[in-house]
Amino acid sequence: MRIKMSGSYRSHEFVDAVDCIIQTLVANGVDEIRSADIYIRPYRGNQLLHFEDQATGTPFKLLRFQGSRSRPFKPRSPRVNPVVDDDTEN
After folding, report:
1. Segment among 3-7, 23-27, 55-59, 60-64 with least mean pLDDT
2. Gap between the Cα atoms of 25 and 64, Å rounded
3. What proportion of the chain, given as a percentage, has pLDDT over 70?
4. Among 5, 35, 38, 81, which residue's CB has the most CB atoms within a 10 Å radius?
5. pTM
6. What is the pLDDT of residues 35-45, one digit of tens each?
7. Are 52 and 59 spatial neighbours (Cβ–Cβ below 8 Å)?
8. In 3-state terms, what secondary structure has residue 86?
9. Cβ contact 88:62 at 8 Å
10. What is the rounded CA–CA span in Å between residue 42 and residue 17?
């Protein structure tokens, strides 16, 4: 399922909108969301914000949240490996 949110949101409005979506899903029988991808364009005023790692100064475009039931990846084949440098543009 894809959820598209058009328009602009202040941070508290975004929280309210996501809560409304979650409550609608729950009201329709959803008791678990197995994965979710959220694509945002963060702005301050009219300026698009870009973020850097505080320790290294390296720019990044991906924040990964590990859920309470996440677990380490265990490769079962030498042909299948995790990709550390995640290219979110392609």
Report:
1. 60-64
2. 23
3. 87
4. 5
5. 0.66
6. 899 999 999 99
7. yes
8. coil
9. yes
10. 16
